[in-house]
Amino acid sequence: MPHDPRAYLWDARQAAEQIGRFVEGRSWGDYETDSMLRSAVERQFEIIGEALGRLSRDNRAIAEKIPELPRIVAFRNVLIHAYASVDDELVWSVATEKLGTLLDSLNELLREVTD
């Protein structure tokens, strides 16, 4: 039985907001040298990718409204399965430059599905 799509969207939004809080006021140098910060950010990206991957399986119509969904899920897979080759600069870049766009999409979809 499929889950309520709002739960997946909510989980992804919460994780994205967490990443935003983690990197706020931080620099690339902070990220590069702080293994706890890197681990925390990566974990939240894993949650985003997992939640949106499940949403894609359970409710394709809603999932297809998320820009770059396949790349988001693939990013999660790299973080989990290819952990030894994670590009920290890429993770930082996504966290600081692209996350806002995803958060906007998630908020918009949450408004749509709750109206």
Descriptive account of the structure:
The mean pLDDT is 95. The chain has a single domain, classed as Four Helix Bundle (Hemerythrin (Met), subunit A) (Up-down Bundle). The longest helix has 27 residues, at 88-114. It is mostly helical. It has helices at 5-23, 28-33, 35-58, 60-63, 69-81, 88-114.
Summarize the structure.
With 115 residues, the protein is mostly helical. It has helices at residues 5-23, 28-33, 35-58, 60-63, 69-81, 88-114.
Fill in the keyword field for this structure:
Four Helix Bundle (Hemerythrin (Met), subunit A); 6 helices; 115 residues; mainly alpha
* Rg calc: 14 Å
Helix/strand structural class:
mainly alpha
Q: List segments where confidence is low: pLDDT < 50 over at least 5 consecutive residues.
A: none
Helix content percent band: over 70%
Shape: globular
What's the architecture in CATH terms? Up-down Bundle
What is the count of structural domains?
Answer: 1
Mean pLDDT: 95
Relative strand content: under 5%
By CATH, the topology is Four Helix Bundle (Hemerythrin (Met), subunit A)
- The N- to C-terminal Cα distance equals 23 Å
Series of H and E elements: HHHHHH
**Tally of separate helices:** 6
**What would CATH call the class?**
Mainly Alpha
Largest sheet, described in full?
none
The number of strands is 0
